[in-house]
Amino acid sequence: MTDVPTEELQAFKAAFFRALAHPVRIRILELLIRKDLSVQELQDALGVDQPVVSQQLAVLRGTNIVAGKKEGVSVRYALRDPLIAQLLDVARQIFNNHLVGTQDLLRQLQREGRRR
Amino acid sequence: MTDVPTEELQAFKAAFFRALAHPVRIRILELLIRKDLSVQELQDALGVDQPVVSQQLAVLRGTNIVAGKKEGVSVRYALRDPLIAQLLDVARQIFNNHLVGTQDLLRQLQREGRRR
DNA sequence: ACGAAACATGCATATATTGTAATATATGAG
DNA sequence: CTCATATATTACAATATATGCATGTTTCGT
């Protein structure tokens, strides 16, 4: 019953979740679920500085969660796996069930759910 | 189109994923999916020091992902939402599709999938 | 009351992540 | 070639998280 390499696998999974553990990165993913977007478009939608977008995209690229494709002068980003949408959806259901502290958050979650 | 309080919600989601972003915590959750367990049992299964288990359980408790119930001298932990199982399963599928670097990891993931 | 077992917490130090700002690279227009 | 625009990288202080180990707390048996 060798169980040694399991540790490596868990570290890998942890790295994946860590990549999701940032407000801006989550928002980027939620936007990319609907539609591929350029850095510029992401920047406008997020309302943050350009370097912030690029560096968070770098994190998501580094974990193979998104991929960028050069299109002339701009770069269009896309999810590498549509299951990311499903993952975020299950996460939302979990929040909805138990993890909510304030009424405000709860209302927002319910609105999000209806929008999909 | 007020979009202001969204930031708070994203921070909340980020905190949730951050709670999953740790090898020991992931392992704990995978064990709890199958069966509720005491700290002692988790410690044995994980092969780590007791304070480590309690510490990581504290993180999971703090994000409402697990809950502990005193049973005499011991404390039995359980997932607060069975959807956690589904979440980890979707994550595993994503790894399986794209996020795998080494052959070793890939083989392990496939074994995990078959076991469920 | 005493001691042992099962958990939980605290703390010091090491390490990693973040925010911010400056700077670099690449592409296409003219 | 030069310039403007789009994107990427770097540097670094501030903050957050992890790790290892000592010490509390609660419960129960005797």
Description:
The structure is a homodimer of 116-residue chains. By secondary structure, chain A is α+β, with helices and mostly antiparallel strands. Chain A has six helices and three strands, in the order ααβααββαα. In chain A, strands 1-3-2 form a three-stranded antiparallel beta sheet. In chain A, helix 5 runs antiparallel to helix 6. Chain A is globular. The N and C termini of chain A lie far apart (45 Å). Chains A and B meet through helix 1, helix 2, helix 5 and helix 6 of A and helix 1, helix 2, helix 5 and helix 6 of B. Chain A binds a DNA duplex (30 and 30 nucleotides) through helix 4.
List keywords for this structure.
67% helix, 3-stranded antiparallel β-sheet, 116 residues, alpha+beta, globular, homodimer, DNA-binding
Brief overview:
The structure is a homodimer of 116-residue chains. With 116 residues, chain A is α+β, with helices and mostly antiparallel strands.
Question: Distance between the terminal alpha carbons of chain A, to the nearest Å?
Answer: 45 Å
According to DSSP, the number of beta strands of chain A is: 3
Stretches of chain A where pLDDT is under 50 for at least 5 consecutive residues are none
Oligomer description: homodimer
Tell the overall outline of chain A.
globular
Total helical segments of chain A = 6
